[in-house]
Specification:
The chain has 120 residues and is mainly alpha-helical. The protein contains seven helices and three strands; from the N terminus they run ααβααββααα. Helices cover 63% and strands 12% of the residues.
């Protein structure tokens, strides 16, 4: 996971990953998106390839790069613990429970508190 985090720490490498999210591209087409030298882009591609985030395939005389997002799973799971999504899920579950309880009480003709009031 440290190798993955180090690889995506650089903004150029993150942008390369974004470019490869949709399609396989050659190093030349990737380099066309940056104002840095092509060898510098190649070094970034090498870091991404060595971390397993990008793999290359030779097609004829070209080397095409593609993203392998499966390598991000461990990092993503680790990062998820710092998000509040889980807290929201619990709140939505509680809201759903209340909605179901209210619907059930309307069908049966009252809330538990009104029944208590009738019996007391």
């Amino acid at each position: 996971m440290d190798e993955i985090a180090a690889a995506i720490a650089d903004p150029v490498r993150r942008r390369i990953m974004e470019l490869l999210r949709e399609d396989r591209l050659t190093a030349g087409r990737i380099a066309a998106h940056f104002e840095i030298s092509r060898p510098a882009v190649s070094r970034h591609l090498r870091v991404l390839r060595e971390s397993g985030l990008v793999r290359d395939t030779v097609v004829g005389r070209e080397r095409r790069y593609e993203l392998d997002p499966t390598r991000l799973v461990d990092l993503l799971q680790w990062l998820t613990q710092f998000t509040r999504a889980e807290a929201w899920e619990r709140r939505f579950d509680a809201l759903e429970t209340e909605v179901h309880r209210t619907r059930r009480e309307r069908r049966t003709g009252g809330s538990p508190t009104s029944r208590e009031e009738r019996t007391a």
